[in-house]
Every structure is written in C-alpha cells, then in structure tokens.
Amino acid sequence: MTFNRNIFTLSDAAQRRMKLTKSPFHRVGQEDKLAEPGPVDGPSLGNRQDGGPFLGKDVDVPKAVDPDQWHQRLIKYFPGEALSLYLALDGILRSAVSGYELIFWLGIVTITSCVFNALYLKKVWKVNRKAQIAISTLALLVYIFSIGGVFKEFLWWKPFYGSLAVILTSAFLSFVDPPGQNATGDLSQDGT
Question: Which of 69, 115, 109 is nearest to 91 (CA)?
Fold first, then answer.
C-alpha cells in the first residue's frame, strides 16, 4: 500500500462507504439483503444525530474507509520536503553572506520554500484540497519561525517565541480537517 498525502476526512469516509455499499442499508457482499438499521461500530459514522448515512448494524465495510486519525493528519500536514529545502539553503546562505544581504536572501528562500511546498504537494503527492496545501504551507512558515530563519535577524525575535509557535501549531494542527472534498473524487486512502 502506498502513502497518500491527501487528508481523508469523515465526509470522505462516508462517501466511500456509500460507494462501497451502493446503498445506506445494504451490507457489502449481500446486495439483495437489507441490513438491520442501527449505529456502525467504530467512528460516529452512521449515527443520524451526526448527520451521517445510516449504514446499518455491523456493516462489513473495509477499514480502509475510516477517516484519518489525528496522528495521520499531523504527518500529512508536515512539510518535510520543503523544510529540508529551506534548511539546506539557510545553511548555505549563512556561510556565504551577512547583514542586510542575508535578510534579503533568507526572505527569498522562505518565499521559494513556500512555493516549492505548494507545487510539491500538488504535483508530486497529488494533494487535491487547496486548504490542505495552505495549512501545510502555514505549518512550514511556523517551523521556519521556530528555528529562526529570516525572523532571527530582527531584534524582536526570541527563541522561546519559536518554541511556543511550533508547540501550539503541532498541538492544534491535528484537529483540523481541511474543508472541501477531494477534487478528483478518488476517496480511497491508498489511491486504488
């Protein structure tokens, strides 16, 4: 199974379950028999109070249609490739230039890394949601702020600001489901 960087939300899971079961009341593999109405085991999918579809009790739907857990969302938001690019360029610049020239080039590298992050997620990882790309790019800026980056060159920046920013961002980022649906309509987590 390949890794898919698209966040798989509760809404995506409900749509995928509907696609697999063809009807909110059929069991997978038993298309001619209605399932007994009731809540679905697992996440709150299927409870009418949540607004989700009523799939029936003990519906045999593969685990692959469960929405991403908090730790999976956090991993998918982390802009590792763009952060690596930034760190490499930051190190090169700090060894080559100083003063206002360093501030200028670090600003250019920050913007370049943000553009790279958006393009890399869209073109290489095939991330469909613009909100997920925006959130990942914002996370990149927070990580750059936390290590200093161009901000370190200003008098107001202090290391504890960066530590606080990355801790708060990491703590709350896992609770964010990007709005919208997968643009391609591919609701599977592994791209199949």
Answer: 109
Query: In this model, does residue 46 exceed pLDDT 50?
Result: no
**Residue 98 in 3-state DSSP?**
coil
Instruction: Give the range of the structural domain holding residue 26, as residue numbers without chain letter.
Output: 10-66
- Rounded mean pLDDT of 126-154? 94
Task: Indicate whether 112 belongs to any domain.
Answer: yes
Other CB atoms within 10 Å distance of the CB of residue 179: 11
Closest residue by Cα to residue 56 from 30, 74, 76, 77? 30
Last-in-domain residue among 20, 42, 66: 66
Q: Given this model, what pLDDT does residue 30 score? A: 46
Q: What is the pLDDT of residue 26?
A: 44
Q: How far, in Å, are 22, 43, 56, 91, 101 from residue 113 at the CA level? A: 43, 37, 47, 14, 18
Whether residue 188 contacts residue 17, with contact meaning beta carbons closer than 8 Å, is answered with no
> Would the pLDDT of 24 be above 50?
no
d(CA 142, CA 137): 9
Domain count, the chain: 2
pTM above 0.90, yes or no: no
